[in-house]
Structures are given as C-alpha cells and as structure tokens.
Amino acid sequence: MNWYYVENGQQAGPVDDTRLQELVASGAIQPDTLVWHEGLANWQPYRALSASGTGSPEPGAAPASATVAASTAAPGSADEAVCVECNRIFSKQDMIQYGTVHVCAACKPVFMQKLSEGLQVGARRGRRPLPVNADELVREILARDYRIDIGSCISRGWATVKPNLGLAIGATFLVMLCNQAAGFIPLLGIIASLILQGPLLGGLNVFYLKLIRGEPAGIADAFAGFSKAFWRLCGTFLLMSILIYLSVIPAAVYGFATMRGGQSPDVIFWILMSLGLVGLIYVAIGFVFALPLSADLELGPMDALRVSFRIVSRHWLSVFALMFVAGLLSALGLLACIVGIFVTLPIFYAATLHAYEDIFGLR
Q1: Same domain for 297 and 159
Q2: Domain check: are 148 and 238 in the same one?
Q3: Averaged over 57-83, what is the pLDDT?
Q4: Mean pLDDT score, 8-23
Q5: Distance (Å, rounded) from C-alpha 256 to C-alpha 265?
Q6: What pLDDT digit, counting tens, does each position of 132-142 carry?
Q7: For residue 172, what are the domain limits?
Q8: Of 15-19, 57-61, 228-232, minimum mean pLDDT range
Q9: 269 and 179 in one domain?
C-alpha cells in the first residue's frame, strides 16, 4: 500500500507499509501527522488510523486527495491548512502564511524565533525510538559533537513558554508546591521529599519536552513520573544526590571531629570545604540531564547518570554557563517582588530542555 504524509507542511511520499513504520519508529511521523492512502476520503491523523486499522484501499479509488499540497489544503476544505510546526488543521483566517507554509497562532512565537536564528522551520525531532542503548547514544553524540548556544536556548525557552504561560506557570508551581509540602510531613519529611522529588521533576521534564516538541501537554503530564516511571526516576534522583554530596563528606567529617575536640575550623577544614564545593558543582552540572534522560529515553539510574556525565564533560563550561545564566535569570525573578519567578522559573526549565533536545533529540 502506498502512503502519503505531511512533512514540514508539505505532502511527502509515496512510501510503502515498511517504510511508513520506519518513519513512525524514528519519530518523523508523529501521532498528529496527517496521512493518506488510496481508499481514504480525507487526510487523517496517523493516530486515528493506527487505532482503528486502515483496511484495504478501495479498488479504483481516485488518488486526487493525495495530490493536494498539504500546506495549502486540508481534509475537505480549501479554507483550512496544516500548521507547518504542529501539523494540525486550522482555518486559514486564524493562521499566518510564510511563503508556501502556514503557521497557527500557538506556534507563531516558536516559528518566528526559528526564522530569526536561521533554523529550519517545521523541523521536529521528537523522542528517539525505545529502547535506547546508552553506549550507542554516547558514541553517536560524541562523534557528531554539539554546541550550546546560551542566548538561543533562553530565547527559545521564552518562545515556548509565552503562548502557554498560564499552563507552564501552573504546572511548574504545582510540582514545586507538592515537593515543598512533602518536606513538612511529620518525622518523614526529608525522606518523603527525597523519594518524591525524582518523579516530580521527571514529570515536569516530560511536560516541557512536550511543549518544545509541539505535542499536546497538560497539567497531568507534569505528574507523569508517578504513573510511568516512579521507581526509575526515584532511583535516578537518589543516586544522583548521593554522588553529588560525596565530595563534601571529607570536609564534614573533619569539621565534626575538630569541633568535638573543642577547636575552631582550621585551614585544613577550609581547604577541604573549598575542594568539596568545587567537586559538588562539577558533578551536579555533569548530571544535569540525568532526569530528562531517565524520563524521556527511559534510561535506568546508572545509565542516565553515566550518559549525562560523559556528554556534559565534553563541553562542561558551556553547560555550566547556560545553567548559571538561566539560574541568574530565575534569581532576578525572585528579587522582582518574588512574583517574577513565576515567569523566570518556567523559562529556566524550558531553556535547559531546549539544550537537552539540541544534544539528545532525534535528528
């Protein structure tokens, strides 16, 4: 059977059944991607056909529908078009036209940002096919290398958050509120916070990655870590926390022994503490992508930490600079009568995950 599909707002194909499944597995065809084959009256989202089965084409069916350019026409109406970014159908009156492609109102900020940066419009990477081999992933990324553009990550983060501002603020601060609330549980607060923080932050990563990829996202996605990957995310966060704070243990042990002897902290203590803080920062930055890898690519705790550390180590200073600038932006939001952080914290997460997508996303 020959299939046609929408790619970057244009009709692509034909491809046979085998090639179609390869495109689905690679993420080139998403659930919302419009597809058509002989025997269908109209273009339909792939999810509708994959859920119901497509059946056999009707003998002699006219292929006229497949010859209509997807960027200028949609199922049954010349007044509708397919958004080049999200591949959804909208009335042309509610869209902007750029050359031969159309863009919906929600995707306009991201589209314009891509144009200003010279990026390919309509390019969607999506999640890699699962399962992912950690060693192969590391080899691939190190072979092609990557670059962190701080300004681009932050500006794209804002372009992602802006059209979804209320939703992004609500999801982010519900997650933060739940995490803080866990810490107030009598007697078990610290333990509960450590256990819940991985699934909470992992779910928030899933939420922002869906926004970045143009997929439907809701508050429930911010809590997806509880239903799909609770123990994996919990293990990743706990192991990451242990490894990060190992570097300050020598200073803590020495300081405790010194104070028990009635002495004040000496030069050795401050040297150990300084070295410990440097090690803590280095390791923490190295693990910055561990939770997204665990939530998005379903890597186990050890693999997620190992992959993140090896990839970040290649350009550690660039990743550190991104986290410093984005973190400084969040701090400025906190100083701006506190309410500013309601906007800057979502930008921080979106900017970080744009960097993740640039490095680990399907190309």
Answers
A1: yes
A2: yes
A3: 44
A4: 77
A5: 9
A6: 899 999 999 99
A7: 134-360
A8: 57-61
A9: yes
